[in-house]
Design brief:
mainly alpha, two-stranded antiparallel sheet, binds ligand BD7, binds zinc ion
Length: about 325
């Protein structure tokens, strides 16, 4: 009936609708909060924050809500001569921010502006990423200090495949490293022998998906471990005995989507949980109902709703956490 949202398989009272316009205004307001201490405390994440905000706006159907020129200028201001990107001007280059930079530039279709503006172009960025791979075990470091993590391996495959430069690295060795992180419960940990964690599962399954090696995943065993993340309140946690958290909606559901088991969780209960995490007055989403909102949980809540098929949201790619139409164009699907 009128004022009731139609979610996959059920009706919702309209206080549980996605407050699209509020979320758009919340994200647009983020870069104007330079008077708030939090703005400066999160400077070390700034380029990630632009990727999170931009992706959320695209999924909400407002791709032009951030000024394109200023967005591209900021990304370019974070690049070093070696092709890598830091989180903000003056910060050291690192894999994580280089991946966010590529995701942003591909989303706004500005990858070729690097070269045009005398910056290090697509191939140079690819070489920066490729030189972070350990050619012996296939793992990736985050920067020259050498800390390795499957987050960096996934990030490398993510950004290189978006630039069609996967040939710059040893994909076979990277797949072997992911396999070494597989556990008997079907999940993956941060390194060989580490316990399964939904975030690590997302990056390991995502890396296998990009390498077209999902045949290596024990889909039934992993599918049941992931479906057991859903709690009575409908939310998902990242490990057994942990609290529900809206960002785990994404890490768990995108992994289930990649192995074709999205039907193994209750979508209606999850969508109600995600909608309870939004601030209907100010916009934005928190990790769980009642907590302070942030742009990180806003994008992963919206991306989770998109995977569920919440009406009015643009389709999201479960591997890249980017608009599906952007990924299809970039990787040439
Ligand atoms: C650094 N970080 C995290 O550690 C968050 C913290 C958190 C949020 N809710 C509960 N904890 N944890 C997190 O992202 O865990 C998911 C994850 C862990 C390992 C691998 C992949 C995903 C968050 C930022 C944050 C800090 C503090 C509070 C909210 C957000 C973060 O940047 N996560 C990264 C995780 C990541 C990194 C690299 C990748 O290739 C993919 C994902 C991210 O989403 N980048 O786009
Ligand atoms: Zn969270």
């Amino acid at each position: 009936g009128p004022g009731r949202a139609q979610v996959a398989g059920g009706n919702l009272p309209n206080e549980l609708q996605l407050a699209v316009e509020k979320h758009v205004k919340y994200i647009q307001s983020l870069d104007t909060r330079k008077d708030e201490l939090e703005y400066w405390l999160t400077e070390h994440l700034r380029l990630n924050g632009v990727y999170w905000g931009l992706t959320a706006l695209h999924l909400l159907g407002h791709p032009d809500a951030l000024p394109r020129h200023e967005t591209v200028e900021f990304v370019l201001s974070c690049q070093h001569d070696n092709g890598g990107f830091g989180p903000a001007p003056g910060h050291d280059p690192h894999m994580l921010y280089t991946v966010s930079a590529v995701q942003i530039l591909v989303t706004v279709d500005a990858l070729d502006e690097l070269e045009k503006r005398g910056k290090t172009g697509r191939e140079g960025v690819g070489r920066y990423i490729a030189q972070l791979q350990d050619r012996d075990d296939g793992s990736f470091a985050g920067d020259e200090w050498g800390e390795t993590d499957t987050r960096f391996l996934f990030g490398a495959l993510n950004a290189l495949s978006l630039m069609r430069l996967l040939s710059y690295i040893d994909v076979t060795k990277a797949v072997a490293y992911v396999q070494a992180c597989a556990n008997f419960d079907g999940g993956y940990g941060v390194s060989p022998g580490a316990e399964s964690h939904a975030g690590q599962i997302f990056v390991c399954v995502g890396a296998l998906a990009i390498a077209d090696r999902l045949d290596l995943v024990d889909k039934d065993r992993l599918g049941s471990w992931l479906s057991e993340r859903q709690l009575n309140n409908g939310g998902l946690n990242g490990r057994p005995e942990k609290l529900e958290d809206v960002c785990y909606s994404w890490w768990v559901m995108s992994s289930l989507a990649m192995i074709g088991k999205l039907g193994w969780i209750d979508k209606d209960k999850l969508s109600k949980f995600i909608l309870q995490c939004q601030d209907p007055e100010l916009g934005g989403m928190a990790d769980r109902p009642g907590d302070a909102v942030d742009v990180f949980h806003t994008v992963f809540g919206i991306a989770g709703l998109s995977l569920i098929g919440y009406p009015g949201l643009k389709p999201v790619d479960p591997i890249y956490c980017m608009p599906l139409e952007v990924v299809n164009r970039a990787v040439g699907r």
